[in-house]
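input
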Amino acid sequence: MTSLLPSNAGHFEKAIEAAHAERWERMGGAVPFITTAKENPPPSFLPFLVWEFGLGMLTPYVDNLYEVIDEGVRWHRVRGTYGGVKQGLGFVGVTATLEPAWHGRAWWNSNQLRFPSLPANDAPLLEKIEVITRLSLPFRSDLRRGVYEYDIEPLQGDHNRLDGCHLDVESGVRLYDGGTVWSFGRTTEIDHTLTEAEGIAIGNWLEVPEEGGIPWVSMTYPWVTATFGWADNPLTQRRELMAAWFPSRSIYLMLKDSDDAVIGYRRARAVHAVSTQYGGEYTFDGDGYAPSENGTRVYIEAMTDFEDADGVDAASVSVVTSLTRAVGIPAGRLWLHPQDVTAATAFAETEITLPLRKTVRERIKFLVRF
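output
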């Protein structure tokens, strides 16, 4: 065996070395492995390599330690830059555009993330995104907000009486005090043709006219709405009359879970008889629509608020008319719980799959045809 002791070693050191000669021979084969272990480390090595590379702050948020080691070193090299944020978000499989705040804001060193798609869940994904982004940003920078689809920016009211009012606040909700503001939106569009049973149930039905137009006996609508020319198409007249019935009513959308239990009711913020129009106020399936006195379809839209419902999956949505509130429930309340309603007539029930979340405003659109 070749001695590894220095030339000035004493008798004691030499005796110890000789006594362990057999062990040194066995360990000799492991020496080359020491130099290559980091290239393909066994699982038992991973915690020690994470510690050696200074990547321990990532381990609570990235499950795969091999990924932490492979990508973490490269992330460390660009940490403190916007490129570091992009690489850090890759740990959790997310992409987003980082948008710095306007330099004139009081919180000029803040940033927001704009997502190209809705993050999969609030917990634990948003917590991971928040922590990793904060670790990746330059030291002086803060993560203020994350947005997708629903993004209402504050009104710049500096140096006047509007400054400091509610208009100076941007949309979103925090998952905890002092945390990042998340402002997400999701749109669901439903195209529905009113059936005879539904029309009779809500009190808005005209039989499809035969030759000769709508008969007198069928005209249960106010005659002031029947402003038709004698040569107008009876089918168009019927659709206009039935569409004009909706805007004067109080309309809600009802959400139910998979057990057919009511989650809640959200009041519609737009109920209009509409006609197609390029660049109209409302869009549905890529087409523009505008309110019209001669509209032959009805556009209905409701949007839940942050925290209306959280942690429950909506399995169906319906349009509700003739809703009666329980005693003491004010007429202006936009979100109603099941116990807030004593009676309602629903139609156009449609199956959906919507995981309702605290950070997401659900925009649900109905286009009702006749």
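quick obs: The first helix runs from residue 11 to 19.
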